[in-house]
Specification:
Layout lengths: L1 H7 L13 E9 L2 E9 L3 E7 L8 E6 H10 L7 E5 L2 E5 L4 E5 L12 H6 L8 E6 H9 L16 E7 L2 E7 L3 E8 L4 E3 L3 E6 H10 L6 E6 L3 E7 L15 E8 L18 E6 H12 L9 E6 L4 E8 L3 E8 L2 E3 L3 E5 L1 H8 L6 E6 L6 E4 L5 E5 L7
Antiparallel strand pairs: 1-2, 1-4, 2-3, 3-16, 5-6, 6-7, 8-12, 8-14, 9-10, 9-13, 10-11, 11-25, 14-15, 15-16, 17-21, 17-23, 18-19, 18-22, 19-20, 23-24, 24-25
Helix pairs in contact: 1-2, 6-7
Length: 393
């Protein structure tokens, strides 16, 4: 059921091409074991998922409408096993006391999927120019700390995705929606296999799917970047690479996506370097206070005023909305360097970033009420810039 849900999430709900609305099932024997590979695509994002806890009595393949397959498997969630058979243009799915007959499509009608092995080996039409490995846990941190800050439905397509830069052992991911900027950095943990510096923009949809696939932090993810696509291959224990002998286990999952075209904005210039006020606050205390203050805000006054005072090391948060009321919340600060300052932010932009910060203490750096605020980790592996908002006096 997990595999069907993951793959079906890639499939478009509406498409003029019937086979594109399907999940392709391929059952085969690998040595004495069996494998079932589920594939789905929307012509831009593609996903292969391989299950090994399968008894393959007879190899075969078929394309089944994703919505029907998902509904049937979900309805049979109490069953320990399901039996799937194909007969002509029908797919039979059986549980203990249920039998579903679904009209299916020949596997040959399913669109061709990008080939990770061919891209890495350089034998396909779109060879990879860089291939590197990162642990799933470290990669998930980078994605989680950036993808939330991407733009939604903007004509500036470049900021609808996340910029990924790899240079040697350094990996950086960046996202912005024009009002906030998230930069996450890490060192690559795996061996460098091919290429060196590479820069690309990955669509948010693919990265949101990545976060659901990265279930084991110790698992290795091989990442390949070509001129037009990015691939994420989740390697099962003992998996063979494309040059190893046939018969070994392959990747558990391969996610690929077309890259976003366009130029990402020059984000380095946005990160402030001259902040003279430094605040250290408890992450949970700050998050709770911002959420409370945001209760009495509306679309017209979508902002929370933050007043930092150095004398008593306190932060006072306040909000006001016409015909609704106002709020006042106060919390203590662990540290405050600099002069008193008042500044207003969109509360969602603050609570979003606090969800992805692992440290109990949050570092906030400020300059003036009309200048961007900076939230970062002590090791500078994560930097978040947020623009202030103007509130009526």
């Amino acid at each position: 059921m997990d595999a069907v849900n993951h793959v079906a999430s890639v499939v478009p709900q509406r498409t003029p091409t019937p086979a594109l609305s399907c999940v392709k099932l391929v059952a085969k024997k690998v040595g004495s074991a069996g494998e079932l590979t589920l594939s789905g695509t929307d012509a831009e994002t593609s996903l292969h998922l391989t299950l090994t806890a399968v008894d393959v009595q007879k190899p075969g393949e078929v394309a089944v409408p994703a919505d029907k397959l998902r509904a049937i498997v979900s309805a049979e969630d109490g069953e320990p096993t399901l039996t799937i058979e194909t007969e002509g243009d029908q797919c039979h799915i059986r549980g203990t006391n249920a039998h579903f007959r679904v009209f299916a499509y020949p596997a040959k009608d399913f669109p061709a999927m990008p080939d990770f092995g061919a891209a890495v080996a350089g034998t396909g039409p779109d060879p990879a120019k860089a291939v590197f490995t990162q642990s799933a846990g470290a990669m998930l941190e980078l994605v989680s700390r950036t993808v939330f800050a991407t733009a939604r439905e903007t004509s500036r397509y470049a900021i609808n995705g996340v910029l990924m830069k790899r240079d040697g052992k350094k990996l950086e991911m960046v996202a912005t929606d024009g009002r906030r900027l998230a930069v996450a950095r890490a060192q690559l943990t795996g061996p460098s296999a091919k290429g060196d510096a590479v820069t690309c923009i990955i669509p948010s949809k693919a990265l949101n799917i990545f976060t659901k696939l990265a279930r084991d932090p110790e698992e290795n993810v091989r990442i390949a970047v070509s001129d037009s696509r990015v691939y994420f291959s989740f390697e099962m224990a003992g998996a063979k690479d494309e040059k190893a002998e046939k018969g070994g286990p392959g990747p558990r999952a391969v996610l690929s996506s077309v890259l976003v075209e366009g130029s990402f904005p020059p984000y380095e210039d946005v990160i402030p370097k001259d902040q003279d006020k430094k605040v250290v606050a408890g992450r949970d205390d700050l998050s709770s206070a911002v959420r409370k203050a945001s209760v009495l805000t509306n679309e017209e006054s979508r902002g929370v005023r933050l007043a930092f005072t150095s004398k008593d090391k306190r932060l006072k948060l306040s909000s006001r909305a016409p015909e609704m009321g106002e709020s006042d919340i106060s919390i203590g600060l662990s540290k405050f360097e600099g002069e008193d300052i008042e500044i207003s932010f969109n509360p969602t932009f603050i609570t979003d970033v606090l969800k992805v910060i692992p440290d109990q203490d949050v570092i906030v750096e400020l300059k003036a009420s009309n200048r961007p605020g900076l939230i970062r980790l002590a090791n500078n592996e994560f930097v978040y810039v947020v623009m202030p908002v103007n509130l009526p006096a």
